[in-house]
Amino acid sequence: MNGGWVRRLVWTAAALGVAGAFAWALAPKPALVDLATIARAPLEVTVEDEGVTRIREVYTISAPTSGRMQRSPLTVGDAVVANQTVVARFEPGDPVFLDARTRRVAEAAVEAAKSGVALAETQVDQARSQLAFARSDLRRATELAEHRTIAERTLEKARLDVASGESAVASALATLEVRRRELESARAQLIQPGEGSERSAACCIDVRAPVSGRVLRIIAESEQVVAAGSPLVEIGDPGDLEIVVDLLSRDAVRVVPGAMARIESWGGEESLAARVRRVEPTGFTKVSALGIEEQRVKVVLDFADRPEKWSRLGHVFRIVARIVVWRGDDEIGVPIGALFRSGETWAVFVLRDGRAALRPIEIGERNQRFARILSGLAEGDRVILHPSDAIRDGTRADPRPE
User: Which tops the pLDDT comparison, 11 or 247?
Assistant: First the structure.
C-alpha cells in the first residue's frame, strides 16, 4: 500500500516537472534591450555646413592703359611689397592695319602736308625778301637823316618796316615748322604693324603692387596685348583670413552675431575656434548636388584662435563649420535613439521592474545625439534605445549583456 502511494507520487512529480518544462519552454522570454541612463550634462545645439576661408581684402590689379604687356615676372605665392614690387610692365602696342580707304586717305593727307610745307617755305622766302628791302631802305633813310634831308617821321617809318619784316620772317619760320610737323604726323598714319618697332628706354610703364602681401592669382601671365582696365593679378594678405559659410535660410535665422563656432575638417588634428561676425541680410538660390534649388545665406566668421594655429590655411580652403545656436550647461537630456512618435507627442520606453513602460515626454532643443527634456523624465530613469516593434507597454525586458 505504501509502495503504491510512493510510485504515484513519483509519477505525479515527474508529470508536473515535464509540464512545467513545457510551459517554461513555450512561455515568452524577456526581450533583450539596450539601455541609457538619464543624467544631467551640458547640451549644445549647432547648425553645420561647409564653407571656405577667404582673404578679407583681395586687390585686383588692372591694366592702367591699353598696350602690350610683357610676360609676368611673378608666380603664384610670391611675396610683394607695397609701391616697390613690379607686378606688370607695359610697352606701346603696334599700330592697327590700314584698309584700302584708310590708306588712301592717309596718303592724301601726306601729299597735302607736303604742299603745306612748300607753301610755308615760299612764305619764308617772301618774308626774308621784304625784310632785306626794309633794311636797305632803313640804311638810305639813316644817311639822309644825317644831312637833314628827310623828315624824322620818314626815318621812324623805315625802322618800323624793318621790325615788321623781322616779325614776318619769324612768323613764316614758325608756320614752316608747323607744316613740317603736320607732314610727320601724316606720314606716321601710314606706319604698318611691325614698322618702327624699336624700343626706347623710357617707353614702358611699370605697374607696382598697391599693398604688401602675396600673389593669389595671375590672370594674365603671357605677353599679350590688353585693353585698359583688364584684370592682371590678384594680391592679398594670407594672414588676414575670414570664413564664409553658406547656410540654409532656415538655419541662418537661428544664428546671431557673436555666436561661437568650431571649424572642423580643415586638415588639422584639432578643431579651431571661431566667432560669427555677420549674417548677411540677403539670400541667394543655390542648386544642390541633387539638383534641388535651395535658399542660402552667407554667414561670415572670424578666427578666435591664435594665428599660429590656422596659419596653414589659405585663400578659398574648404572647411566645415559648426555654429552654436543654443547651449545649456546643466540640462537633462535623452538620446535621440530612444525617441519615437506616439500620436501627436514624443514618447520613450522606460524600463521599470523588468518591464517596458510607455512614457510620453515633452522635449525642447535637440542636436544629432541628444534632446533636452522639458517634462516626462527624471534624472536616473533608464530608457530603451532603438526600441523594436516587439517592445510594447508592459513587455518584459532585460538589459542586453555588455
Answer: 247
